[in-house]
Amino acid sequence: MPNITTFDELLIILGALYLFECLAWLPWGALAASRVPSFFRRPAMAMEFPSNGQGGMAVGSLLPFGFVFFADLPALALSPEGVVGESACHPHPEHRTQGTGQVFRWDELAQARAKGRAVMVGGQALVDGISLEAARKLAVFLRRTAARPEAGRNTHIQRHLARSLRSRDAHRRALRWGKASAWPRTCATGAFLWLFAVVPAGEHGLLPVRDWLMLVAGFFAWHLAAAIALPALHRSFFPAQRGNRIKRTLTACLAPSAAMRSADSASHDLMAGLHPLAVAAGTCKPRAWRPLFGRIWRDAHHPLPPETADPAGRRILAWHRTAWREELGAFAKRHGIVEKAIAIAPEAPGESVRAYCPRCLSLFAKTGIRCDRCGGMPVSSVAA
């Protein structure tokens, strides 16, 4: 077994810290879409990662030159009557996006304010656990909608739902970020290669290095360049996040692993305000995101029973789901998706299978029962 030197131990620790910086937490319903230098990979949701009852641990692009976008799914339903802190859309077959269950009328929502990752109304949390930028944008939307005449809120909310599904906006944001972040990502990649390739090669005699100070100075030059490039990039996309920008910059200056991941971690909030489906469609190939559309479409047409017992909250959820189905239909037309094909019952793989769940597509040997994964959804007969 080879001897591990102090240098090797230090490199292993730095590598572990770097891998830790690649991790990010995704609540249920959120989506991650990674980009590596030349292509977009398929989207992934929290259900596809090691997870618990709250969400899953996502892994970003392992290369500093790549980046990953996150799209939140706030637990919020809207209607001209008010809002309820419960999601009307649950892409995961078993886990709901956690909501507060709070119900507010529009006259109360004039006080909506973003506080960290939550949206507060009169000291109570309406939505929690979303990104800083998503919380800020949502609070602004709620205040503006509350200031509108009651007769105009219907159209305003429908436009908001339509905007959240604009995949071309996600595509444009991704392209803009790719161009603007080229230099910070180059610096981060330089620091990564210098630390994990050039320095070890010099240590083991693979490079004709006479002065270790040159290796150390080269690494810190790339490291500081990556840290210094971060504030301008962050300010151009998130001008309102001054405190978060200072925190990120100081962390990048002090921690080499954070500097190497600075451009990647800053990209997480870029898609705030867009639905995960729009982000997937705008950044990934159709064959990668269309299964996600199928899950969301089936959930919209076969929704889980509401958690809230408040009559106003139930009415708000019902209105939101009706408007949401209309927007999904418009999305399907734009992308050439035939909705009837999604609604077709699956073929039975054998004579023992006689029923399926229309929401999660689980198969059953009996008819007349309910799917426990989907809150007691009645099963349907499969195609013969």
Task: Explain how this protein is built.
The relative contact order is 0.13. The strands form 6 sheets. Strands 2, 3, 4 and 6 form a 4-stranded antiparallel sheet that branches. The chain is globular, with a radius of gyration of 24 Å. 47% of the residues lie in helices and 14% in strands. The protein is α+β, with helices and mostly antiparallel strands and 384 residues long. It is built from 13 helices and 17 strands. Helix 1 (6-21) runs antiparallel to helix 5 (182-203) and helix 4 (167-180) packs across helix 10. It starts with 5 loop residues before the first helix and ends with a strand. The longest helix has 26 residues, at 212-237.
Task: Break the fold down into its secondary structure elements and pairings.
Layout: H1 6-21, E1 23-27, E2 31-36, E3 39-40, E4 44-45, E5 55-59, E6 67-71, E7 77-79, E8 82-84, E9 103-105, E10 113-115, E11 118-121, E12 124-127, H2 132-147, H3 153-164, H4 167-180, H5 182-203, H6 212-237, H7 242-254, H8 256-260, H9 262-266, H10 276-283, H11 286-301, H12 311-334, H13 339-343, E13 355-356, E14 363-364, E15 370-371, E16 377-378, E17 380-381
Antiparallel strand pairs: 1-5, 2-3, 2-4, 2-6, 7-8, 8-9, 10-11, 11-12, 13-14, 13-17, 15-16
